[in-house]
Structures are given as C-alpha cells and as structure tokens.
Amino acid sequence: MSQVYFDHNSTTALKTEVLEAMLPFLANQHGNATSRHSFGRAARAAVEHAREQVASAVGAYATQIVFTASGTEANNFAVHGICSNLDKGQILTSAIEHPCVSRPALALQARGWKAHSIKVDANCNINMAHLEKLLITPTNLVSVMLANNETGVIQDIAKVAELAREHKAYVHTDAVQALGKIPVDFFALNVHAMTISSHKIGGPLGAGALVLDKRIDIQPLLYGGGQEKGLRSGTENVAAIVGFGVACELAVKYLTAFDMHTENLRKHLETGLSKLNAVIFGQNGLRIPNTTFFAFPNMDGETLVTALDKKGFAVASGSACSSDSDKPSHVLLAMGVEEDLARGAVRVSFSASNTIEQVHHFLTAIESELKRLKNLTAVAA
Predict the structure, then answer these.
(1) Can you tell me whether residue 113 is helix, strand or coil?
(2) From CA 375, how far away is CA 251, in angstroms rounded?
(3) CA distance 35 to 21
(4) CB atoms within 10 A of CB 177
(5) Total domains in the fold of the chain
(6) For a Cys staple, 40 with which of 31, 49, 130, 345, CB 3.0–4.6 Å?
(7) Which domain holds residue 224?
(8) Would the pTM of this model clear 0.90, i.e. be above it?
(9) pLDDT 10s digits, 13-27
C-alpha cells in the first residue's frame, strides 16, 4: 500500500525542476560565493539570479531580499533585528502566530519590552477593534501572519499595516504559508518586513528569506563574514538558494492551476467531512485553498492521526512545527474552541499532486476508523 501525503503545509516534496537546478551546485560547482576565483564568481552569479527570482515572486526588488537558512530564522531576525534599533516599548503579535514569532517577542520581555497578543474571532480573523485598542499604547512592532498554518485563514494584512503605520509602528508579516497558494505582493501588503520559506513551495529545506523595506533599520541576528550586505553572515548555501529561486518561479507560474485544483479537493473533502459530522475550523473565513482543519467531537486527534497513518494517509494533528507540545492547538483556543474539541484537531493540506480519488479513499478510511474507535470506546466503558 502506497502512502498518501496530505501534510504539505508542513513540508513539500522537492520538485524535479528544482532538484535539476540544484544538482550542479551539489556535485560539481562547489565555489564559495564570496571567493574571487571563477568557481566563486559562478556561485555568486547563481545566488544573485535566485535573489531576482525570489523577489519577482513577491513583487519586490532583488535588493530587498536577505537570504536566511529558514523561515524560523527570518522571523527571529525580523523581531529581534527591528527591535534592536528601537527604544524598549510594546510588541504586538497575533494570538495565532507561529511560535517562531511569538516566542522571540516574549523573549524580549526579559530585556524590558512588553509583548501583547492581538485577539482573533471565532473565524480566526484578527480582531481589528482589539488591535486599535492595543495601539493606543506606543507600539514599536506589529507582527501578524498572512495565512495561518493550521486553519489556512488569510488575514487582511494591508488593513493591519494601515492601522499600525497610523500609530508609527513597524509591521512584519509571516507569509510562509501564503506563498505559492495565493498572490503575495510585498508592496500591496504595505509591510516593512515579510518572511518566506523554500520548503513550503517545493523547494529544498535550508533556505528562507526576509523581504525588507529599504528604509528600515535592522540589526543582524548573525555576525561574521558580512554576507548578505552585512545583514546575515555565514557562507551561503548556494544549492538551496538556487533551488529556492526556481521553486519561487514555478510557484508563481502554476499558482492559478494550484488554486483551482486544491480548492476542488478541499470542497470534496469538506462535503464528506460534514456528512460525518465533523467540525471544520475557520470555514467561514477567507482561506488558502489547500487547507482543512477539522475535528470530531469526543475523538482524540493524535489517536485518529495514528490510525489514519496505518491506513496509508499522512496528516497532521495541528502544526508540525509545534509537535513538541501535547497541549491543544493555541490557534483553536484563541478562536474560542473548547479544549476537548481542540484536542481532536486534524489538519489536511493538499498539493497539486493529490487527487480526488485519494480524497474519496481518505473519507472512507476516516469513516471506518471513526466506527472502530467508537466501538473500542464503548467496549472500554
């Protein structure tokens, strides 16, 4: 039995075109991009070409792209780097942020900063009234993700940025889950900094980027040889950066097809889940097309995920990046979901390679497992 992968928000398979572009820099072209010889110059040219590809994918200029080793690093860089050049004050992050945004903000409290959380409503949308209330207190940085990694709900970042800028605050958005699923335009979002990542769009692990407004003053997170114009020291991972560039180009090229295909899969999945009496989280919000986050009352999510894995389906019980915790999803709790129901949460995230047939088999497997697990519970009682 072949395993069906429904966990693309966690990480994606490396695309063939990406691997082909990377291979020369993995096998033969081993020059350091800071070296002056021909090998180094070839590596530098490849990095700069990738920088242009990444910038083009998000409507930015190549000079605004700072390569990092991951989205996590880019988010930490944004929070710490922006705040390092400012007087101690208030940092606002949404209640549904990934830990690589919320935890750096909380860590700054030890240095005299005040970190506060922006509420969301039952549909996982930012509570704009609460944001406005918090902004009454002088605020240095506001960070709100563009698309949530669990529910898939898309935030009105342009509106968030408008409110924040009115109060002289800098704005950062984590767009890791949005890139390749919806159009992403740095200038239209009106933010000062934006995080993106390679391995969420068919690129390799080990590459991310922070997109920066040229006018923002930011301190490096890593010091050393002065790579990336002194903003991110460390020898460039040329192969990964090259792969990131190609992945960005492909993501934009096939965006419309991806949206149409995965939204159709999601529609079939959610129709079937509703017939099985599942609760679908964020269903009334605007979402990225490939994501469904759901639960069945009185059903443990981890147990169902394990059972489905044995049936041949790889899904997540929440955010894979937060799998070190056995607590219910902080996103669902912020939305007001009861803790018992939140413990049952399961996330399905599609790619262009998934099929309607797989969805139908998946629904059959869920129905079968629900009956089996409920029977086991009845016997135990």
Answers:
(1) coil
(2) 44
(3) 21
(4) 26
(5) 2
(6) 31
(7) 16-252
(8) yes
(9) 999 999 999 999 999
